[in-house]
Amino acid sequence: MKIFIIPMIALMIAATSLTAQAHTLDKAEYFDSAKTTVQAQIHNVLHSYYALKDALASDNAKGASNAATQFVAALTSVDAGKMSAQQRDLFTPLAENLRGDAEQILSSSNIDQIREHFASLSDNMLTLVTSFKANSGEVVYSDYCPMQKATWLSNQQPIKNPYLGRAMSTCGSIKQTIK
Q1: For residue 163, is it within any domain?
Q2: Structural domains of the chain, count
Q3: Residue 60, Cβ neighbours under 10 Å: how many?
Q4: Is residue 36's pLDDT more than 90?
């Protein structure tokens, strides 16, 4: 009888260990899923940013305003509750700055004023994208306009300057490639 008890105890310990590992894997999968969800949500923010950038590059103030509305909606949909405390500490003030920039764009009808607020929005977006690796494998170009001393993000290599619009659409250069 004693001979059978020892293997039985060993089997019970092994089963308990496997069950604990299975729960650990489930938690890891959950956190990977949460991370993926947050990245996808921030990726949507990035794509709404591109629409704003493209409207400015086309000198379209109304299109920029519409894109800023979509940007705020995408930003609001990011679920900070799925972030780690460290991520939330980074995201929360950044999101407040981005929302403030977008609201300034929404309150402006003058394209030059919109472009001024877009510069700050672009700097904050660069921080957001690089911090959360939210480009989801897509290449993001950080472009620079020497005349405006301002950067912007683009999903295309050809320069389409949102600060100077059609007047000098190709002014600028790629300063960083984010993969």
Answers
A1: no
A2: 1
A3: 16
A4: no
